[in-house]
Design goal:
The chain is an alpha/beta fold and 169 residues long. It has 7 helices and 6 strands, in the order E-E-E-H-E-H-E-H-H-E-H-H-H. InterPro entries: RNaseH_sf.
Length: 169
Amino acid sequence: MHYLFLDTEWADEAGRDLVSLALVSADGAHAHYVEIDPLPGNPKPFAADVVYPLLQRGAYARERSAMAKSTVDFLMSFEPAAVLADHHNDLRILRDLIEPAAVKRLLMRGTMLTQMLKDRTMREAGERWFAADPARLARRHHALVDAQALRHAWIEMTQRAPHVRTPSA
């Protein structure tokens, strides 16, 4: 089983306007990061003031269908996979991004989409990871950095040593 850690950022209070999405493998060797293009207009203040300034744009900025295709392609390269997120909205945004047929295809291949329990101990593990590096802390709320923090907390909490696996072709 391949474990993939998901984080998303969104622009609205309801959590429906996708801004960015990241997936990181448990071994840390594989990552996928994309940003929506164009960005949602009229974002909530947190998104405008914190999330938008962290965006990388350029090659990472993709219109919705290209963003969805590259995300499905990344997920399909892992079989079977468990996509882990610490917030239910991350999983909903992922499902909303990729078409229902792609979700069904992934589920039939053994991919699981699940929310991790994020208790005090898990939050503290993530906080230690951020605190250990001021550069990481400065990029908190960048989807890729937050997915890496989730990966680190999971490794610490489960005491699983990551090992490199090559995704299936």
